[in-house]
Design a protein that fits this description.
The protein is 89% helix and 0% strand. By secondary structure, it is mostly helical.
């Protein structure tokens, strides 16, 4: 059995995406074993978790795009300055 400190370290090491996916798996298992009366509540919880997953993936994609455009802009500016310097 794990100590509380070991569990906290593992939780801190896990990414939000992994945690949300694990919650989704647990909810799916819960809705499968709990019967039909708990399915609506489980479905609502799974949709809210899915929205958080999509939001996290979208946020990561936007950050990558911003970094890509920043580097592209930087290199284009350097290229333009170099061309202007050579033409003088």
């Amino acid at each position: 059995m794990q100590t509380r400190e070991e569990m906290q370290k593992k939780i801190m090491a896990a990414s939000n995406r992994k945690i949300l996916r694990r919650q989704m798996e647990l909810l799916a298992e819960y809705s499968r074993t709990s019967g039909t009366n708990k399915i609506p509540a489980s479905s609502e919880a799974m949709t809210s978790i899915h929205k958080e997953l999509v939001k996290a993936e979208t946020l990561f994609f936007v950050r990558v795009l911003i970094a890509l455009f920043t580097f592209t802009y930087f290199f284009v500016c350097i290229y333009i300055k170099r061309v202007k310097f050579i033409k003088r």
